[in-house]
Amino acid sequence: MKNLVKLGFAALMTIASINVTAQNKNEDRENSILWEVTGNGLSKPSYITGTCHIMCSKDFEIKPKVFKALEKSESFVMEINYMDPTEMTALQKMFQTNKKISDQLTPQEAKELDQILTEYGTNLKNMDTSSSQALYALISMKAVPCPQTEIKSYEIELMQAALKQKKNINGLEKVEDQLISINKAYDLKEVIKQLKMGKEYESLLQRMVNAFKKEDVESVYNLFKNDKFMNDKQEKAMLTDRNKNWAEKMPEMMKKESSLFAVGGAHLMGENGIIKLLRSKGYTVKPISSL
Asked: Which of 56, 109, 222, 268 has the most CB atoms at less than 10 Å from its CB?
C-alpha cells in the first residue's frame, strides 16, 4: 500500500501544478468545500468535497464535516482510484517516455531548458528520459513553500481514513483518461513555458490555499482560469470535458451507494462545473456548513 500511496502522491503533484492559476472576482457566491446531493430518485444523500490536492502541513486541515460525510457514505471516490494496482502501474508509466526530451528540442531549446531546470535543482541530463508530465510535476515541488516531508495530500489522507472505515474505494476516471487530457492541454513546449514561470506559481499557490482554507471555492475556480496560465483549449481539456464525463458517471455511482466524491476544488464551480451539471440533471445540490 505504501508504494501505491507514493505513486498517488506523485500524480497529485502533477495535477496540482497544472491546477494552479490566478484571478479573482467579487460577486454573490454560493461557497463551501462540502456539498450534499439529493433528489432525483436517490435513496440516500451523497456528498462532494472540493480539495486542494497538496498543501504544507502548517496549512493542512480537513474539516470535521468532511469526515462526517465520509462516515455517512458507503464509498469514497477520487479522480483516480489510487488503490487499483492496474491504475498505479499506468501512473508509473505516465512519468516515463521512450523518446528523450532533448530529441524533441533544438540544441538551443535544450540548452535553455537545461538552464531552467537548474532553478528546480536538477538538469536536462537527469530528466531527459522523463515525460513532460514529470517535468510539470517539478512546478508544484517548487511552488509548495515547505520541504517535501511536510507536504500533505488531501486525497491520500481521506483515502486512508476511508480504508480504516472499510469504505469502497473508486475513481471517476482512468490514468489513461487523465493523460489524454493533460496531453491535449500541455505539449512539451507549453510545459517549458510554464516552467519559466516557476516563481510566479509560488505566490499563486499560496493564494489558492488561502481561498481554499476560507472555503471560497468560487475564488479557487477563478484562480484556475487566468489566461496567462490557461487558454481556452487547456480549460476545455482540463476542466470542462472532464467535468462532463464525471457528471455522466456520478448518477449511477450515487444510485448504487451513497458516496463521498473528492475532486479538485476548481471542478465544482462555473457554468460547466460539477454542481451546475448535476443540478441540470435534476439533483438538489446544496452547500453544507455543518453535519
From this structure: 268
